[in-house]
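Listing S7. Sequence submitted for prediction.
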Amino acid sequence: MSEKNNDTYERILNAAKEEFLRNGYHSASLRNIVKSASVTTGSLYWYFKSKKELFDAIVGVHYRQMLDLYDKARNKVFDFSYNKNNEAVNEVGSNCFMEMLDYMYLHIPEFRILISGAEGTEYDDIVHTLALREIESSELFIGTVSKKEEVVSPELAYIVVSGMFSGLFEMIKHDYPLPKAKKCMKELYDFYAAGFSYIMNSS
């Protein structure tokens, strides 16, 4: 086999998506993928050296894109024109969540795998990773607008922030139509922003 065939590659990917959706990463069978894709084992290994590499090809790019979308918004927050402007910061944050939601709905099967089938892989911590980045960003931003040493405890911050990101992925888990998901996400973000604003002003 001297060159790669796009049709074979796509058949393997599609069969793998179905297998990972059904069984998750650890229980997924390369034998089932080969059979479903109507290819040989040799063909599969021509494209992917391992189940891990195949899994990465399906979800890796989407995991990284979600982090990139968040990081771009975080950079906007710390732009000179935004800092010390809560209204602008909240708008950037709200827009970021809507962009992430739109992206997820363009790749629903991959995100279903990421949410429910990535346990034990390097991709099973997306809520945790996003929550830690948000907490770090919030602490840095709060440091520019408040002289208080601790506005909110790290424990409470993690609970609240991880809950917000978990809510983002709940839209996919529960098959919400995109318009309903956007409405829920806006309300969730507004709730989150108002809560932290209250804590900052009352502490």
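Caption to Listing S7: primary sequence and predicted structure tokens for the chain studied. The mean pLDDT is 87. The two ends are 67 Å apart (CA to CA).
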